[in-house]
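For reproducibility, we list the full input for the flavin-adenine dinucleotide complex.
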Amino acid sequence: MKIVIVGGVAGGASAAARIRRLDENAQVIVFERTGYMSYANCGLPYYIGGTIQDKGDLTLQNPDSFWDRFIVDVRILHEVTDIDPANKTVIVKNLESGKVYEESYDKLLLSPGAKPTRPDMTGIDNDKIFTLRTVEDTLRIEEYIAKNKPQSAAVIGGGYVGIEMAENLHENGIDVTLAEYADHILAPLDYDMAAAVHSKMEENGVKLMLNTTVKGFENAGAKIRTLTSNGDVLSDMVILSIGVTPDSFLANKAGLQLGIKGSIVVNDRMETSVPDIYAVGDAVEVKHFVTGDKALISLAGPANKQGRIAADNICGLDSRYKGSQGSSIIKVFDMTVASTGINEVQAKKAGIAYDKVVLSPMSHAGYYPGGRVMTLKVIFEKQTEKILGAQIFGFDGVDKRIDVIATAMRANLKASGLAELDLAYAPPYSSAKDPVNMAGFMIENIITGKVKQFHYEDVANLPRDGSIFLLDSRTPYEYARGHVDGFINIPVDDIRERISEISKNKPVYVMCQSGLRSYITCRILSGNGYDCYNFSGGYRFYDIVSKSKKIADKSYPCGMEEQLV
Ligand code: FAD
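The corresponding predicted structure, in tokenized form, follows.
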């Protein structure tokens, strides 16, 4: 059997290696357009920032090493330009020699990835605008920085690549302004969870321009001017990172069925609409594991797994891809931010009746040095308790918690079942009640009616006319350092003595720092016949979100360029 693979990185290289492990006799040829195979796309920003110093570390394999281990013929600097499904051939161009030739296949696997989106706007072809996809792109940016010593950069787009580039350019001593179209960066997060990331970026000197539409670019002497709805940004370079588009021109030309944004439609065996042609990775449309809807999820994990599944099926096995849930994680300076599944915006869009918990536990036992607060949000379907998604930001142990929840989702564990997970504990690592267990306890309390909640978005609309009682159950010191208008301070430990100060015929809305003391207060008051609501996330969370609103409202109007560069 002769198998031709287009694209020699995440999906393509995984598939090639798996095919060889399954079939010692197959002939496997991989065509890769760039000069590198199996390169670490995810490591590219860190090479620019200097964390990864050796260029060699960016490539996990080269054609010689791959041949030695797998006897796979990898042809770098070879672009497949056409597919003839009827005759089962591809047309290949050797990009070094210019030679064009035909190669036949029994099975064809497409793993061409996705290309950075480049909107058709004024000045987009400016040579100070860079995108990041390949090793070559990385080296171009590295060379530009070395030669021109830019002092300032505009990063367009606050997705994963944009944020990683902002941080890594900042590591190079470059002053960064990041412009984002939406009201918050990191679209997989809800606004409230992205709020802490906004503060982290600003704290580190990255200027955020939210709600900002980029309209075009202009040359400005030695600099480039980014024209935005929120004022112009003058900088020495621009990183364009507004998302990716499936690189599906070959599939399109060959008449394969296409889906969202021109992605390749595949079934759960990674078969395209044309016999003997498979496709995987960023170029394909997937089923969202949570909603069952069609989705584009451009991540390395799914691409690698799909490559393996396609290889299985090519080799006569029966493997199925059950969908992507978009588990992802990013380092933002010293903070870690992660998510899995869907967020509130997506749940609303899908018409799912959901509830959520927000909590801010310590990463490990409070009495053991070094613990840091993390904030988790878990979203679940009210009726079924299906876990819809989770978002976490913090400094330590975020990766572990998001992966536990992602695993629970795969195993269709109910949200309250998080309480039952028997997780490893010793003081340096966790608490006897792990943050994931705590989320489960809270969900169970909500489902069983032991506690009712109110959320950030409810606070502004709470009546201040005396019809409800607003209670802050922290210490007077904490209260004095900051509280929400209208909330009256009665510390949790004084509640029983001062209970007469709270009128029994009014609902009581309780807030503390993290949500724990207010929960205890609610239980005490409920036990005394009160109707109570606990603030989800605590004042700390309220404060983080409120501060971020100020960043969102801040604009950098025209004429203030000097302050931005
Ligand atoms: P790719 O790995 O992109 O490989 C496709 C290859 O096909 C390309 O090298 C391309 O040159 C080649 N090709 C395309 N068309 C042709 C053709 N006609 N002929 C020959 N060759 C062709 N994901 C994560 O999960 N975590 C991360 O931290 C993360 N960080 C990232 C950082 C950056 C800067 C980038 C760009 C991506 C990052 N990703 C990350 C996404 C991840 O890299 C992709 O989801 C994954 O590589 C997709 O695999 P793929 O095989 O579909 O495509």
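The radius of gyration is 27 Å. Residues 555-565 have pLDDT under 50 and may be disordered. Both points were considered when choosing residues for closer inspection.
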